[in-house]
Amino acid sequence: RSRGLGDVYKRQIMNNVLEYLEASAAAFPGKTAVKDDKTSCTYSELLTDAKKAGILLAKQTDIKKPIAVFMDKGVITLKAFMGILYAGCFYTLVDPSFPAGRIRQLLDTLNTDVIITEEAHAEKLHNAGYNKTIIYAEELFRSEVDETADTMLMQLRHKLTDTDPVYCNFTSGSTGIPKGVLICHRSVIDFIEQFTQTFGITCDDVIGNQAPFDFDVSVKDIYSTLKLGATLIIIPRSYFMFPNAVVDMLDDNKVTTLIWAVSALCLLNRLHGLKYKVPSEINKIMFSGEMMPIKQLNIWRSYYPDAMFVNLYGPTEITCNCTYYIIDKEFSENEKLPMGQAFTNERVFLLDADNNEIPYTKSGVTGELCVAGTSLALGYYNASAATKKAFTPNPLQPSWPETIYRTGDLAYYGADGMLYFAGRMDFQIKHMGHRIELEEIESVLDSVHTVEHACCFFDEKKGKIVAFYVGGKDKKQILNDMKQRIPEYMLPNILRCVESLPLTKNGKTDRNLIKELYLNETRK
């Protein structure tokens, strides 16, 4: 028969990330899809259990609703995520190690009807004030997947579009309330297609997951694996206290690919993990979350001279990353790594204070880094004011409505035409791989009953959060009080009690002077 245009230009149009799982389960049913320190499952088992969970969850809530997963990361957690998607809903991982106050904030924002957890964590949920439906993980996989159930799941799928959400990850909020970043199917699909192709990830790869499942670095691990039929090795968070355990897990499972936070790579160096053993199969090492110290990078490159190293950049709000730089030369410690170039189908540009675009030919001129394209988040969940502030009309496009995300990051073009990071416009920092609003830390510190007033800043050189405060001198008690509200990675590393905080001529706390005084002291 004659070939029509449809045959010539035929390509698969994907609308839902579950199609990744379904295709890989068809191609590699008996292959290990995901493994943690306790258990593993094949692609066939992952698909079947995800459908079982989807059948149960669909009876508990309506489509397009959030379902929280109150568990540590692991094989069963990933099954729960996929089950939530089969139910036509979207997932949020709420870390059980968070203090009750933080958990309550996240659940209040989500207003979820259903939470999946394990019995060991149930009491903490109740202490956080949650009194709606709780489903224990062990109950998720008891449904039967027959033809009727399969039909029901597909009917739910047909009610969704590619702009419906997949997940909601929370970031720090300047008002003291965390912001839930909502990412849709189309954004994940478009990014993962480019990500895996750009770096040559294939079904033969074994990806070693470091990032928590509430941190968007893990999105690259999960969906690169599912798209390609690769294998995901989930390294428990506790292992990073014992680097030999991490290295053994990487080596024993023949991990080829690391997509890690900078802080995790540096930690393994500081604890001499690679001096114990160099896992033999690693050939791709990608990092993001904060600036990679050149000294730390060069240590890794000395162990893996033939591996591909990639510097990735991008906030949660643009679906993982928007720029990349494949490291192709040696860097000295006084040089700076480029942020590189934009991924295909993502527009990354700089705006000056008057909303004019800074061309790449103007090297060294700093502007705010902005992003446009399908990778943008839907916005912040139940936070319209915060959404309008960050996701704004493109001032460069007056002829039709186009939304951009204003990152708040400053950058400039180098003489090589590549982008380079230059800092933050506001009080947001990147610490231990997390984006943190210093104002949120100040808000919590101010709320401690023995503290009268506080001011926080970030010591970039030492990578430490510094807090000056007026009030009681029992720093241990102050930190203990703060632990009830915020996770440990947000706690000040240096807490200094002073008689008063200097003010500007406008009567505001002079944080620049406080930081200058601190830095002058530390130089002595």
Unreliable stretches? 1-11
Structural class, judged by helices and strands? alpha/beta
Adjacency order of strands in the biggest sheet = 2-1-10-9-11-12-13-14-15
Described by strand count, sense and barrel closure, the largest sheet is: 9 strands, mixed
Helix-residue proportion: 25-40%
Summarize model confidence as the mean pLDDT. 91
Number of strands: 26
The count of helical stretches stands at: 17
Counting copies of identical and different chains, the oligomeric state is single chain
Structural write-up:
There is one protein chain. The longest helix has 16 residues, at 43-58. The protein is 32% helix and 25% strand. Strands 2-1-10-9-11-12-13-14-15 form a 9-stranded mixed sheet. Strands 16, 17, 19, 20 and 21 form a 5-stranded antiparallel sheet that branches. Strands 4-3-5-6 form a 4-stranded parallel sheet, covered by helices on one side. With 524 residues, the protein is an alpha/beta fold. The chain is built from 17 helices and 26 strands. Helix 2 packs antiparallel against helix 3 (43-58), helix 3 (43-58) crosses helix 4 (75-86) and helix 8 (185-198) packs across helix 9. It is globular. The chain starts with a helix and ends with a helix. Mean pLDDT is 91; it is low at 1-11. A hairpin with a 7-residue loop joins strand 7 (165-171) and strand 8.
Write the layout of secondary structure elements.
Layout (H helix, E strand, L loop, with lengths): L4 H4 L9 H10 L4 E4 L4 E3 H16 L7 E5 L4 H12 L3 E4 L6 H11 L3 E4 L4 H6 L5 E4 L10 H12 L6 E7 L7 E6 H14 L7 E4 L7 H12 L2 E4 L8 H10 L4 E5 H9 L2 H4 L7 E5 L5 H10 L4 E6 L9 E4 L14 E2 L3 E6 L15 E7 L5 E2 L3 H7 E3 L9 E11 L5 E6 L3 E4 L2 E4 H10 L3 E9 L4 E8 L3 H9 L10 E4 L13 H13 L1
Parallel strand pairs: 1-10, 3-4, 3-5, 5-6, 9-10, 9-11, 11-12, 12-13, 25-26
Antiparallel strand pairs: 1-2, 7-8, 8-18, 13-14, 14-15, 16-17, 17-20, 19-20, 20-21, 22-23, 24-25
Helix pairs in contact: 2-3, 2-9, 3-4, 8-9
